Amino acid sequence: xxxxxxxxxxxxxxxxxxxxxxxxxxxxxxxxxxxxxxxxxxxxxxxxxxxxxxxxxxxxxxxxxxxxxxxxxxxxxxxxxxxxxxxxxxxxxxxxxxxxxxxxxxxxxxxxxxxxxxxxxxxxxxxxxxxxxxxxxxxxxxxxxxxxxxxxxxxxxxxxxxxxxxxxxxxxxxxxxxxxxxxxxxxxxxxxxxxxxxxxxxxxxxxxxxxx
Length: 212
Ligand SMILES: [Zn+2]
Ligand SMILES: [Zn+2]
Description:
Helices cover 25% and strands 29% of the residues. By secondary structure, it is of the alpha+beta class.
């Protein structure tokens, strides 16, 4: 069976988990959430020996998208995601980067907005799109039923959940997204979060203090 492989590259002062994800059968890859530190990302691509087809974005925060426009230009690939709800964030990426003292960052225009139930493709692998608002209005999760793998952005972390005090955040929505979209995926599903270590749905269901 075709296998997904992934390398996590922590980028930016926020230690955001940029993920290089690829189909091992075809060596076709996507870069998920290239927040910055593009030389590190490009080194990982070269070391893995893969060809990048797309950039996928989980949501519009600067630590996740700060390098997206530059990487799109240098790799000549398209950007898929997030949900249109994060348009207001993507139009102000440069501004919010400056607020954190980061320059040379551009606003982001996705080539394809994603909706709940959409599918995205890398090589022979198909990921389902789950719209999971709460941390931001347009947050999406990428889930592969066959690989038992979900890329969850800042919706859910090992031992924590996404903050909801930023513009467009909504705590009730966040918990609904986790309860109705993520927990039903199954305890065996591995998760790659936007920050911190990897985990599984089962581990978080059992031990995450915010979900008890
Ligand atoms: Zn975020
Ligand atoms: Zn983040």
